[in-house]
Amino acid sequence: MKTRPCDQRSGQSGFSLIEIMVGMVIGLLAIIVMMQVFAASEERKRTANAGSDAQNSAVIALDGMQRHIGQSGYGFALTRLLGCNLQLPFGAPVPIAPVIINPPLAVIPAGDPNTDTLLVSYGLGNDQPEGYNVLSQSGTTYTIIGTSMLRVGPPADRVIAAPAACGATTLVLGTVTAVNASVIQLSTSAAGTGLFNLGATPRFLAYAVRNGNLVVCDYMAADCGDATPATLANPAIWRLVAENIASLRAQYGRDTSGPPMDGTVDTYDQTTPATACQWARTPAIRLALVARSAQYEKENVTVGIAPAQWSGSGTNPIGVPTNPDGTADALWRRYRYRVFETVVPIRNVAWMGVTSGC
């Protein structure tokens, strides 16, 4: 029987060159579409993450500032001391007040344009806020009734020796060096009819926005009024609180009723109180913090003449962000902004109640 050899090619099939090229084109188009979708997704993800990071940073910073402002005035919320000048271990004398908005440049150098600075002060002692009456004084030795709450340390309590009315006198923050039954010794011989204990670690915190960051300086550790560039750029002196902060705005909540006062906020402005009674009539601070997303967008995503609005925009608007050299940032609209606003009661002033004569 004869057999015919099998042609191996007769049962084979495949793609032609044209079919392969069409398939490659379709595959490339699919890859391009997928990459565009992926890029758009990643861009939205970066925008969302940057906005979330800025929001979280601003919320944490605002919460910390709220806690400090809420505690401000502790240990010296008395008309006898409010408005006096106090010499701290560093720098020029600072006014004694719970919160000062835009204090003199010698106290806090200016921050970024269109932003405010804050000086927040409070004691950390567990002593009576009314202070001690000084029965007699001889140099650095003060005789008072009861000394059990005063501590030599370390760290030692810091005490203000104040006259009945400070007037033009600059008060001094002295240190307790010795304590006996009814006698204490201080590191100062300042004349005073009363002693006020601020505890071992009082806080005098200077807040400012510099180069788009919220920073803070503690006057008990450094001279926050030093305006030299090296000091302002020193992270050990001006510590970072939050990055990408476009603006900080604040206003006093003032009681303008009466006299007599009723302890209720009637208006908000940046007029710094000039007398002890005016400080007693300032039981709250309205505060706004503007966070900026770190994500630079290809097109303008913020419209208007300012990046954000707040309740005080009528008199103290949030200004356009600036470059490090102080010029307006022409591309500020390429970023997203979020404003966080709150009213912080100054409890230690509110607890003074309706002050006699105010």
* SSE class: alpha+beta
Task: Calculate Rg over CA atoms.
Answer: 32 Å
Low-confidence stretches: none
Sheet-strand content, in percent, reads: 25-35%
Average pLDDT over all residues: 88
Note the main sheet. Answer: 9 strands, mixed
Count of strand segments: 18
Order of helices and strands: HEEEEEEEEEEEEEHEEEHEEH
Q: In percent, how helical is the residue content?
A: 10-25%
Distance between the termini: 131 Å
What spatial form do the alpha-carbon principal axes imply? Answer: elongated
Count of separate DSSP helical elements: 4
Describe the 3D structure.
By secondary structure, the protein is an alpha+beta fold. The chain has a domain of 221 residues. The chain contains four helices and 18 strands. The strands form three sheets. Strands 1, 2, 5, 6, 7, 8, 9, 10 and 11 form a nine-stranded mixed beta sheet that branches. The radius of gyration is 32 Å and the shape is elongated.
SSE blueprint and pairings:
Elements: H1 17-71, E1 85-87, E2 94-95, E3 99-101, E4 118-122, E5 132-133, E6 136-138, E7 141-143, E8 158-162, E9 170-179, E10 183-186, E11 194-197, E12 203-210, E13 213-218, H2 229-232, E14 239-242, E15 245-254, E16 267-269, H3 276-280, E17 284-292, E18 337-345, H4 347-350
Parallel strand pairs: 1-9
Antiparallel strand pairs: 1-2, 3-4, 4-12, 5-11, 6-7, 7-10, 8-9, 8-11, 9-10, 12-13, 13-14, 15-16, 15-17, 17-18
